[in-house]
Automatic annotation (TrEMBL), chain A:
GO terms for cellular component: delta DNA polymerase complex. It is found in: Nucleus. This is DNA polymerase delta small subunit. Transmembrane segments: none annotated. InterPro entries: DNA_pol_a/d/e_bsu, DNA_pol_D_N, DNA_pol_delta/II_ssu, PolD2_C. Its EC number is 2.7.7.7. The function of the small subunit is not yet clear. It catalyses: DNA(n) + a 2'-deoxyribonucleoside 5'-triphosphate = DNA(n+1) + diphosphate. The gene is LOC108851667. Keywords: DNA replication, DNA-directed DNA polymerase, Nucleotidyltransferase, Nucleus, Transferase. Residues 36-163 form the DNA polymerase delta subunit OB-fold domain. Heterodimer with subunits of 125 kDa and 50 kDa. Belongs to the DNA polymerase delta/II small subunit family. Gene3D superfamilies: 2.40.50.430, 3.60.21.50.
Automatic annotation (TrEMBL), chain B:
Signal peptide: none annotated. Residues 138-213 form the DNA polymerase delta/zeta catalytic subunit N-terminal domain. The lineage of its organism: Eukaryota, Viridiplantae, Streptophyta, Embryophyta, Tracheophyta. GO terms for molecular function: 3'-5'-DNA exonuclease activity; 4 iron, 4 sulfur cluster binding; DNA binding; DNA-directed DNA polymerase activity; nucleotide binding; zinc ion binding. Residues 1-36 are annotated as: Disordered. Its main location: nucleus. This is DNA polymerase. The keyword Cell inner membrane does not apply. InterPro entries: DNA-dir_DNA_pol_B, DNA-dir_DNA_pol_B_CS, DNA-dir_DNA_pol_B_exonuc, DNA-dir_DNA_pol_B_multi_dom, DNA/RNA_pol_sf, DNA_pol_B_thumb, DNA_pol_palm_dom_sf, DNA_pol_type-B. Pfam families: DNA_pol_B, DNA_pol_B_exo1, POL3_N, zf-C4pol. One of its GO terms (cellular component) is delta DNA polymerase complex. Its cofactor is [4Fe-4S] cluster. GO terms for biological process: base-excision repair, gap-filling; DNA replication proofreading; nucleotide-excision repair, DNA gap filling.
Length: 439, 1090
């Protein structure tokens, strides 16, 4: 797109975009046929175990590798299995049936940790309680596959001496021939229709992307944006209207209004630059991960553009051979409820080290019961790994032992902060673009 | 053979097969059908020498024996110290069981006597954990009769002779030199009726054996010819007392206390009779019984064995011992007072993959499994055997199974050598419990404690399945594997059998956890100590034996004797407790409750009501007692006051109550948790005992009924309630200087509800206290009226039915209290319970009556619109007999029959609980024809009958609640606008639907269309309709995930499919429904992907 101005013409930079990895997140053909969650755990364990077994000889060359069943008291060995965290405070669907309805509503705690939480390691043959201080329960969650070095004690516990995580996956080589600055703009939590959303803010964002700005410098920046990703929670509408009964026409419009507004905005963006929209927790999409693309019938205005793509959550794509992987935030929010870390980025980094996008699925995070695969395994290390709908912006570059470099990004909620995140494809550096009107 | 199982404990021999995926296919017999295994075994029996290489067999046997002996050492009790071995130490032990055996007289201890005698046998455990079997010699059974007037000391020998003669006739085959050992004259007093004379003459008749007491009593009852006196029949005294109890009373031994036998006073025989570590004989006079105080209130380290068995039933049948094998036995052994079991093992038929922390023992034949268990029980030597329903199922099954297999040595499970376990059917009936049938299995020296019986006895629950009991007490759902799956798991491989073993172990562990959680051992031992009966009586007998035991002990101190009750004589009834007329309504002012603290015991104490203070009407006229020394009760009986004769019952009660006060005070002081447990158990036992004294006197088929006492107690109770009402309403009036007139709105057995009229809780509390103090002052001590709590608001529905918020402090209410309102009855569906609780919550706590009505209307509308979760509509009933046996057709009986026709394997059997829902059917169909299996309903979209639920289930309880608070409740709630629209699902299997053609319809308005998703008219509403559709899917997905992960959690495994089919579990149907709904919702959603 070209923008005429008095001094100079800014031309939108071009880039190659491919989105092949999302196929794994699609569940079009799959049906609910009575399958259960055991299979996804089985698939996860199977793949991760092959990987960890291959690492074990270099990690602890002298130790034999055992299954949980093969443990012998006092004998040091390595076992590989899925962790299960036994949590005292974990909410439970059976609580609804408990004898007494509690008189005072429970204050929902920020997270469900308790000092008595314990870890258990399980493989398909059995489970064993874990002891020792090498493995700290606050750090790990149910569903992570690890290798442990230790021995069985007389009490039937496995005393852990050392832990091996899968670590950063191998990475495709990053192209170094990029000479110019090109940006991918990441934004999440537009929450159109919520009480805190400000239509002006969103318009500023759109104008910035499309180059409807007077400032030449800003215009230059705008022209460098080659791709926009909206990472979940774009609209918010009152769910209580959706009771299954027929709605009054007034309610129909309150429901439809935010989506219509979003469609108009997307229409403007898509006319200028390619845009991906991912579903989030509050969007009109399914609940369980992977969330399927928002239906095109919701966007009659933008859907015809070939620059508009409705994508899955999680979402993975390549821009100029830079691999992006991201979610709308549910995986990290769930980790925040069931484990502890100093910052949200630590959770993000952990999932990468565990090579699993959402270890707590299906345990505490809704997920489709896959039968033959676990789509959340991270087999290839992305160059940019982003997580949407976080409280504040944060970013760090992680370097792996095999030369991998990953940019981790927490995208803040736009409606609360007015902040979008721009990633430079040339050097993976990233900065925020703030649209706060007060500033 | 059991290599897979032992590889963990033994140094692995090179041949050991690795566990896990590669099953021991070569070494272990491939899982053959059960019949085949049995045949193999019989072959094994007869001709194994020809078939199997004998040498390898011996080798294998040795290997096996080695493994067993290695285990034996960990199983055995601690070895005896030298002091014990040298007999130089007194033996102090806590006794658990006292019974007697008939043996030859011990010549050393009782020189000069011969023949057979009853020997008291006491089993117990020392502080160090040694098992003790103590034989007590020299104690002889006896009873009393009143000495007939005119009989002097000289006549006794003649009487003795004729009695001896009659006894000889009726006991022909007894081997005793003398039947009636001796008859003495003693001075005693009968407990019945007030008597002025100090004592009268009784004859104490001592017989040779305990069984002879009954035959001797029969002879004396019927009458006996005595020279010089003619034909005479006698009232006997204390002739129906169990011998062991007689012994305990006479030696001051109470159940579960510590007994000491000093060094030198006991003798050990060379030939022992039992497997106990310390077996000895002593004279009964040498026993020292320690009162359970201080050091002697503690518990010995009993060994508690908790076990569970699994049987492989045939399809469609509940396992029967004649046909179906025992395939697994899981055992846990815990020392009393420790929180973790020290032995965990499981014995399996055929190979089983190892389990961490559990000793898995696999055997090729069922015979070996059973024998291994027998050896295990002998080696571990448990004092207490616990389990869930072991008395009715597990133990009888094992014994019958062993008999069916012809294993003769199996039933040697007791502590006594060569004594077989005896089994008989027993019926237990008591007023409190009703009649129950069970099997009684006697394992000598081991106390059986069936948690099912104990919980059934002590707690009122809606279901007593292990699943719901553990959900109730441990708040844990248990995985329930249907017995048809058990056989499949057994016939699978080592891994599936391991699955089963894990399940079996869990079932063995739960009883132990329940035992700990409910503090059963402490509570039962304390109850035995307080009431003085052996512990085994507590489970096997009713309330009355406990009171009898206390009465006997007290009477003995007072030199009194108890007459034998004439069985089933006067079956009089008397007026029960009073209930003041309830002024129904919804009270929005505080209601104060005034309670009489333990009313009945206090009345008995205050008015000195007892057997021995009751004056017969005859004596009232004759004796001319001064009026200041007697009380005439409102029911017209006369009792003397304390000044003339102190009653025994009041004395017992006083002791119980002061002991409880002491226990409670000690409880506050106590720091050690184990000591606390003992004291808490004690105060509870004391409370229960005090309250059961009244019942004892009123039990018409009891040991010593005396309706004069019980009717006097209730008549006093009635009088007091009415008196209280009068006092309150007279004193607290505006005339008396109070702000409002007080009003008694309701009164039950021992409490009175007063509305003082004041609007705030604090003022009501002050007035309540004042009233309680004032009225207490007008009653005789120790009757005391206490102010306990305030209800605010209070919904009084009718007699015995009310609900309200309880306040014990003016700042904040404590909880919601309901009585007599259907929330727990199990023939109601869950919907009723939810509706009632939620409505009460809204009315009482939120004070939002319109909101409650709105909620009810919405729910009713949901019900009619078919939007209710099916699991809320499930009704369950126990199947007690097969369908044909029911005289009146019942919904669940009929359904069970229908299900059997559909699939015999999964149909409910007798004893199972049958869950069902009521479905729509042809007009005029009977209710019992409309019952259907919920699963079947889910699978086939069968419409339920909302009207049945509306009219037969929810209307009554709801109206009861709403009538006091809402005008026209019935028309408002049950017949309003919200009941106009109805939606019924179309069944997918009904006749007509087979001919119907399915056609696409518009998602929006259901108009038939040929292609696409929406009709022309609905185009443009895509976004709205899609949002609706997707939000449904999203809700279902969330639910689906929560439900299925919860089941994984209960099951304790992430990598295995959930098998549980526990229909008691509240989420079972929801889980199935979520799965099905998910599939349809997903299909619907897929229509949008155009």
């Amino acid at each position: 797109m070209e923008i005429d101005s008095e001094k100079k013409t800014h031309e939108r930079k071009q880039s190659d975009y491919t989105c092949l990895q999302d196929e794994g997140f699609e569940i079009q053909k799959e049906m609910y046929r009575g399958q259960q969650y055991s299979q996804i755990y089985f698939a996860r364990l199977h793949l991760m175990r092959t990987l960890l077994y291959s690492l074990a000889p270099t990690w602890k060359p002298h130790l034999p590798v055992c299954k949980v069943l093969g443990l012998e008291e006092g004998k040091e060995c390595i076992i590989v299995g899925t962790l299960f965290k036994h949590m005292k405070l974990k909410p439970c669907v059976l609580d609804e049936y408990s004898k007494e309805r509690s008189v005072t509503p429970l204050v929902k705690p920020h997270n469900f940790m308790h000092p008595d939480d314990t870890l258990i390691l399980e493989d398909e043959s059995g489970r064993v309680k874990l002891g020792g201080s090498a493995l700290s329960p606050p750090v790990y969650v149910t569903g992570v596959v690890v290798a442990l070095h230790g021995k069985e004690t007389s009490a039937g516990e496995f005393f852990v001496e050392d832990v091996l995580e899968a670590g950063l996956p191998p990475q495709i080589e990053r192209p170094f021939n990029l000479k110019e600055d090109k940006y991918v703009l990441l934004v999440s939590g537009l929450s159109i229709g919520s009480s805190s959303s400000n239509p002006l803010l969103f318009q500023l964002l759109v104008d910035h992307i499309t180059g409807h700005v007077s400032d030449d410098e800003e215009l230059g920046l705008a022209a460098q944006i080659v791709h926009v990703v909206i990472a979940g929670n774009s609209v918010e509408f009152p769910r209580k209207l959706l009771t299954g009964q027929n709605m009054a026409s007034k309610d129909q419009s309150t429901l439809y209004e935010p989506i219509k507004e979003l469609d108009i905005m997307l229409n403007q963006i898509a006319a200028g630059v390619s845009v991906d929209i991912m579903p989030g927790l509050n969007d009109p999409a399914n609940f369980a991960l992977p969330q399927q693309p928002l239906n095109r019938c919701l966007f009659p205005g933008s859907a015809p553009y070939n620059t508009f793509r409705s994508c899955t959550n999680p979402h993975s794509f390549d821009v100029d051979n830079i691999r992006f992987l991201g979610t709308s935030g549910q995986n990290i929010d769930d980790l925040d409820k069931y484990s502890e870390a100093e910052s949200k980025l630590d959770f993000v980094e952990r999932t990468l080290m565990w090579r699993h996008l959402a270890p707590t699925a299906p345990n505490t995070l809704g997920c489709y019961p896959f039968t033959d695969r676990d789509p959340f395994l991270i087999e290839t290390c992305p160059h940019v790994y982003f997580v949407g709908n976080q409280d504040k912006y944060d970013s760090r570059l992680v370097k792996g032992s095999e030369g991998q470099q990953v940019r981790l990004i927490c995208i803040p909620k736009f409606c609360e902060t007015g902040v979008a995140v721009a990633v430079n494809l040339r050097n993976l550096e990233c900065h925020t673009r703030s649209f706060n009107i007060q500033l | 053979m059991n290599r897979a199982g032992n590889s963990k404990k033994r140094p692995p021999p090179s041949t050991t097969l690795p566990a896990g995926k590669h099953r021991a296919t070569g070494a272990t017999p491939s899982p053959s059908p059960i019949v085949g295994t049995l045949e193999d075994e019989f072959v094994d029996e007869d001709v194994f020498a020809d078939e199997v290489d004998e040498e390898s067999l011996i080798l294998r046997d040795m290997e096996e024996r080695e493994a067993l002996s290695a285990r034996s050492s960990t199983w055995a009790r601690p070895p005896l110290s030298p002091a014990y071995l040298a007999n130089s130490q007194s033996i102090i032990f806590q006794q658990l069981e006292i019974d007697y055996v008939i043996k030859e007289v011990h010549k050393e201890l009782l020189p000069g006597s011969s023949g057979q005698a009853a020997v008291i046998r006491i089993f117990g455990v020392t502080r160090e954990g040694h098992s003790v079997c103590c034989f007590v010699h020299g104690f002889e059974p006896y009873f009393y009769i009143a000495c007939p007037p005119g009989m002097g000391p000289d006549d006794i020998s003649r009487f003795h002779q004729s009695l001896e003669g009659r006894m000889r006739e009726s006991n022909k085959n007894a081997n005793v030199p003398k039947f009636v050992r001796c008859i003495e004259m003693v001075q005693k007093k009968s407990i019945m009726y007030y008597q002025q004379q100090k004592s009268q003459t009784f004859l104490k008749i001592t017989v040779a054996l305990p069984t002879m007491v009954a035959s001797c009593r029969g002879i004396l009852d019927r009458g006996i010819q005595i020279d010089g006196l003619g034909m005479k029949s006698f009232q006997t005294y204390e002739s129906n007392i169990v011998f062991a109890l007689r012994f305990m009373v006479d030696r001051d031994i109470v159940g579960g206390n510590w007994i000491e036998v000093p060094a030198g006073k006991y003798k050990k025989d060379a030939r022992t009779l039992s497997y106990c570590q310390l077996e000895f004989h002593c004279l009964y006079s040498d026993l020292i019984s320690h009162a359970p105080e201080g050091e002697y209130s503690k518990m010995a380290p009993f060994r508690v064995l908790s076990f569970d068995i699994e049987c492989a039933g045939r399809k469609g049948h509940f396992p029967e011992a004649k046909h179906d094998p025992v395939i697994q036995i899981a055992n846990l052994v815990t020392l009393q007072g420790e929180d973790q079991p020290f032995i965990r093992n499981v014995m399996t038929l055929n190979s089983c993959a190892p389990i961490v922390g559990v000793d898995v023992m696999s055997f090729e034949t069922e015979r070996k499994v059973l024998l291994a268990w027998k050896d295990f029980v002998r080696d571990v030597d448990p004092d207490i055997i616990i389990g869930y329903n072991i008395c009715k199922f597990d133990l009888p099954y094992l014994i019958e199974r062993a008999a069916a297999l012809g294993i003769e040595e199996f039933p040697l499970l007791g502590r006594v050598k060569n004594s077989r376990v005896r089994m008989r059917d027993s019926t237990f009936s008591s007023r409190q419990q009703g009649t129950r049938e069970s099997k009684e299995t006697t394992i000598e020296g081991r106390f059986q404690f069936d948690l099912f019986q104990a919980i059934h006895r002590d707690h009122k629950l809606s279901s007593y399945s292990l699943n719901s009991v553990s959900a109730h007490f441990l708040s844990e759902q248990k995985e329930d594997v249907h017995h048809s799956i058990i056989t499949d798991l057994q016939n699978g491989n080592a891994e599936t059998r391991r699955r089963l073993a894990v399940y079996c172990l869990k079932d063995a562990y739960l009883p132990q956890r329940l035992l700990d959680k409910l503090m059963c051992i402490y509570n039962y031992v304390e109850m035995a100590r307080v009431t003085g009966v052996p512990i085994s009586f507590l489970l096997a007998r009713g309330q009355s034996i406990k009171v009898l035991s206390q009465l006997l002990r007290k009477a003995k101190q007072k030199n009194m004797v108890l007459p034998n009750a004439k069985q089933g004589s006067e079956q009089g009834t008397f007026e029960g407790a009073t209930v003041l007329e309830a002024r129904t309504g919804f009270y929005e002012k505080p209601i104060a409750t005034l309670d009489f603290a333990s009313l009945y015991p206090s009345i008995m104490m205050a008015y000195n009501l007892c057997y021995c203070t009751l004056v017969t009407p005859e004596d009232v006229r004759k004796l001319n007692l001064p009026p200041e020394h007697i009380n005439k009760t409102p029911s017209g009986e006369t009792f003397v006051k304390q000044s003339l004769q102190k009653g025994i019952l009041p004395e017992i009660l006083e002791e119980l109550i002061s002991a409880r006060k002491r226990a409670k005070a000690d409880l506050k002081e106590a720091k050690d948790p184990l000591e606390k447990a003992v004291l808490d158990g004690r105060q509870l036992a004391l409370k229960i005992s005090a309250n059961s004294v009244y019942g004892f006197t009123g039990a018409t088929i009891g040991q010593l009924p005396c309706l004069e006492i019980s009717s006097s107690v209730t008549s006093y109770g009635r009088q007091m309630i009415e008196q209280t009402k009068k006092f309150v309403e007279d004193k607290f009036t505006t005339l008396g200087g109070y702000e409002y007139n007080a009003e008694v709105i309701y009164g039950d057995t021992d409490s009175v509800m007063v509305q003082f009229g004041v609007p705030d809780v604090e003022a009501a509390m002050t007035l309540g206290k004042e009233a309680a103090d004032y009225i207490s002052g007008t009653f005789i001590k120790p009757i005391k009226l206490e102010f306990e709590k305030v209800y605010f608001p209070y919904l009084l529905i009718n007699k015995k039915r009310y609900a309200g918020l309880v306040w014990t402090n003016p700042q904040k209410f404590d909880k919601m209290d309901t009585k007599g309102i259907e929330t727990v009855r199990r023939d109601n569906c869950l919907l009723v319970k939810n509706l009632v609780t939620e409505s009460l919550h809204k009315i009482l706590i939120d004070r939002d009556v319109p909101g409650a009505a709105e909620y009810v209307k919405n729910t009713i509308s949901d019900l009619l619109m078919n939007r209710i979760d099916l699991s809320l509509l499930v009704i369950t009933k126990g199947l007690t007999k097969t369908g044909d046996d029911y005289e009146v057709k019942s919904a669940h009986g009929e359904l069970a029959e229908r299900m059997r026709k559909r699939d015999a394997a999964t149909a409910p059997n007798v004893g199972d609980r049958v869950p069902y829902v009521i479905i729509k059917a042809a007009k005029g169909a009977k209710a019992y024809e409309r019952s259907e299996d919920p699963i079947y309903v889910l699978q086939n979209n069968i419409p339920i009958d909302p009207n049945y639920y509306l009219e037969n289930q929810i209307s009554k309880p709801l109206l009861r609640i709403f009538e006091p608070v809402l005008k026209n409740a019935s028309s408002e709630l049950l017949r309003g606008d919200h009941t106009r629209s109805i939606s019924i699902s179309t069944p997918s299997n009904s006749g007509i639907m087979r001919f119907a053609k399915k056609q696409l319809s518009c998602v929006g308005c259901k108009v038939p269309i040929s292609t696409g998703t929406l009709c022309a008219r609905c185009k443009g509403r895509e976004a709205e309709l899609y949002c609706k559709n997707v939000s449904q899917v999203s809700d279902l997905e969330e639910l689906f995930g929560r439900l299925w992960t919860q089941c994984q959690e209960c099951q304790g495994s992430l990598h295995q499919d959930v098998l549980c089919t526990s229909r008691d579990c509240p989420i079972f149907y929801r889980r199935m429904k979520a799965q099905k709904d998910m599939a349809t919702a997903k299909q619907q959603l897929d229509r949008w992907s155009f």
